[in-house]
User: Fold DegT/DnrJ/EryC1/StrS family aminotransferase from Butyricimonas virosa.
Amino acid sequence: MVKFLDLQKVTAKYADEIHEAVLHAIDSGWYLQGEENKRFETAYARYIGTQYAIGCANGLDALIWIWRAYIEMGVMQAGDEVIVPANTYIATILALTENGLKPVLVEPSIETYEIDDSKIEKAITSKTKAICIVHLYGQCAYTEKIGALCEKYNLKLVEDNAQAHGCVFNGKKTGSIGDAAGHSFYPGKNLGALGDAGAITTNDPQLAEVVRALANYGSQKKYVFKYIGRNSRLDEIQAAVLNVKLHHLDEDVQLRKEVAKYYIENIRNSKIVLPKIFDWMQHVFHIFTIRCEKRDQLQQYLSNNGIQTNIHYPIPPHKQECYKEWSEISLPVTEIIHATELSLPMSPVMTIEEIKTVVEVINNWR
Ligand SMILES: *Cc1c(COP(=O)(O)O)cnc(C)c1O
Assistant:
């Protein structure tokens, strides 16, 4: 059996260090907003290459707080438009609608699955206030053209970096390219906690201050409430785990790249479209995605042969019941991706035997 992602093994790899860090946090008697948080925020800001990193409860909240902060700062208001890739995970979009902002769905490229920068300008209106890029599957979605559009139209650039910890564009980590970035440390992400966790990174001191307050009941000073916030903090035990795992992130990313390289060099089946890698620095393979016209048949065949796969994602946001008002929007590229995408087993703990098994079974599929 080849698991899609063996989280038990992912944790076991660093078990001694994690156990020690968690026990230390437990024994400290201090469980929120303490030393582990400070240590993680400092280390993560340094790793990403931003002035500030602010821990919070999860990746969705990280994005919610960025948009809320821009509203509190008077940069945006309810009803404003934000450009997003139509094929993203729902959280990117939930963060906008929760704040009364209007997501404007732009098609991805069928080559990269990232937002198609040639289709962005047509979607910009007088109400557009930002572009939200999503480094989907672990690949950098930023392009010089996107940067130029933000300049030209005076738009904020927000990055959803939930899937791309460790990814680099022109020497800069994703999460440090735009005005602000939301990060998720959901257990299955490239940098995963042992529960929910997230962070915001930015170089903007005002934004940093506002998001920190929003995630802490809207308070900057004990018992004084400036904003209508929520309790959305990163706890000390998760921060302790993240402090250990951040240390090993680059090594784990390298292992993911090796799995990807083996797949790309050895999978040979004319019915399967492999990812085209334009720059190995710019992909950290959170998800190794292939496409196949007979995706459901392939998935069943792989399952019959003991190989777990996943689909990212079976239903695009505009076809979800919660957004039924968008169901008539025409997004053919997005729909092709959702109908044909299949994600192969991918993690830093796969054995070479497992990787070879996946390749062999796929190559034998007729
Ligand atoms: C996982 C994910 C999120 C949300 O993160 P959570 O920590 O699960 O709330 C947001 N955006 C993308 C693209 C994701 O993959």
